[in-house]
């Protein structure tokens, strides 16, 4: 018996690794009509892990001080061996992670995977979507460039439109009347400590809920043998006759992860300027407002919406109502039908919503 096998046997006798592997890998059956869209969850776990690792490496040299932050980022980019690669991976990774997250939510919408009994899965996923946007926004200020400084000023200004609590919230977020060193300290703490911890906890809850309810079979493709959901009592939705997670679906997960990494690294090496504009390479100057300050692409639709309406409060109200409706969709859409082609009204609303979001994003980019 080789040393490796002896070591495995020693650990297995004390932990029961083989039993866990049988139950969670080879014994964990998925719908036999499961498709590649379901692997976006694994892609997002890898994307989050890349952000955590690259973020921790950046912390070795980054200085969260308004006087030193920009210089420390330049030092990372120009002096630290492979520092440019770590920073680009972190900056590009935040964009590609949000793109994968949007695709994951769209696939859940189209395949009706948010429906009963998976309302809590949807709510936890929606919370993750909001938290990821929050961690991206707080990380935007870290380089202390003209772009990050004024983009944060514009973003926090919009909160002031809220009645009564708006001005107080702006001052709380900034740590003062204006964006300054105190803002950098608060955003840095949120970005590296509070939000990653909360996101990790919600991911655990999301996976726990997925395991407890069972995987929702796609509403099309091969017929599935899932046990039907009975609303009068809890029942795990098993898939007798389905495919094992290992090795069958793990290969699909691996394929999707490799495609994601190929796109991600393609952007890093062949389009490294993607997450930056010229203002990102100029240190922050509170006395010089750039001519054109725009948020990241995933906030452009929100940005353009605020510009369309005559006052910011109305724009924020419309956006808040849309987001609330999306979060509570499982409680509004009670029909058990999940096939997208058999839900023409829903499909029309989804396609219309996507086209509107794209139009506002393009408009915001060129406005």
Task: Give your account of this protein's structure.
It holds the Pfam family Cytochrom_B_C. One of its GO terms (biological process) is respiratory electron transport chain. There is one protein chain. The chain has 367 residues and is an all-alpha fold. The protein has a domain at 36-220 and 257-298: Cytochrome Bc1 Complex, Chain C. The chain has helices at 3-15, 17-26, 40-59, 69-78, 83-110, 119-140, 146-159, 166-174, 181-213, 245-270, 300-308, 312-327, 329-332, 344-366, and strands at residues 29-30, 243-244. Strands 1-2 form a two-stranded antiparallel sheet. The relative contact order is 0.14.
CATH class of the domain at 36-220 and 257-298: Mainly Alpha
Report the structural category. mainly alpha
| Rg for CA atoms | 23 Å
Strand content: under 5%
Please report the number of helical segments: 14
Question: Main beta sheet, described?
Answer: 2 strands, antiparallel
The helix/strand order is HHEHHHHHHHEHHHHH
Give me the CATH architecture of the domain at 36-220 and 257-298, please.
Answer: Up-down Bundle
Q: What is the fold named in CATH at topology level of the domain at 36-220 and 257-298?
A: Cytochrome Bc1 Complex, Chain C
- First CA to last CA: what distance? 69 Å
Protein name: Ubiquinol-cytochrome C reductase, cytochrome B subunit
Pfam families: Cytochrom_B_C, Cytochrome_B
GO biological process, one term: respiratory electron transport chain
GO molecular function, one term: metal ion binding
